[in-house]
Amino acid sequence: MSSDMFDKFKTTLQDGKTQITKVVSDVNAEITKTAQNNNINSPLPAEFSSEVAKAANILNGFTDPEKSEGGLEQVIPKEVFDKAMGLAVFTVVKAGFVWSGRVGSGLVVSKLDDGSWSRPSCISIGGVGFGPQFGADVTDFVIILNTKEAVKAFSHGENVTLGGSLSITAGPLGFGGEVAGSVYDGAALFSYSKSKGLFAGTIIFERKDANHKFYEKDISAEELLTTKAVMYPPATHVLYEAIRKAEERQPKN
């Protein structure tokens, strides 16, 4: 290949890369705009402080009857929340035709041995599926981690596949009352969402770059979810306030 041909080939590749980057940027901007216009959370990975605010907003929507679309009957029961070993809170967009793709972002946090809550670790979500899927659907999720094994899976820095080694099922709903022990049988994870579907096969990844930038140091998900290796950053207070309100709810007769 001559020098001129190589230069033209290189220029063509660079132009193609620029066009692809622009398309991705335009799509991201459109998703963000649509989310803002429809008062829904954006599924796109954002800076850590934005992820914290989003997680707090989602959690309030699933635990506060006044903010829940379904009122008292559509909130996570206090008993389920009290027994939780951890929480994964995120937003996912699912879109496609015949086959579908899923992307999203959020946070995971765990309950430490002393009963306090760990520092949050940033996560991203991905996956593909098949079957009838037309258009796009943006959905908020709260995943209750019912076991220490579930927390360990999120702590090891490896990809977590929902419905894989960790069983997942739709969680019970309702503000007050007792939750039958049988609902916990074999359920490592409880899924709560604003639309139908558990998204089994969805893969959750640790966002190491976001954690590093936010905590200003190299720190693993295991350190964040199982120790008090860092102080609670002020930006996370809104999340712990949402958790506190969920824990202090009083059943209504």
From TrEMBL:
The organism's place on the tree of life at top rank: Eukaryota
InterPro entries: SH3_domain_YSC84-like, SYLF_SH3YL1-like, Ysc84_actin-binding
UniProt-recorded name of the protein: 22476_t:CDS:1
Organism: Dentiscutata erythropus
GO molecular function terms noted in the UniProt entry: actin filament binding; phosphatidylinositol binding
Domain (Ysc84 actin-binding): residue spans on this chain: 127-246
A UniProt-annotated Pfam family: Ysc84
Biological process (GO), any one: actin cortical patch localization
GO CC, alphabetical: actin cortical patch
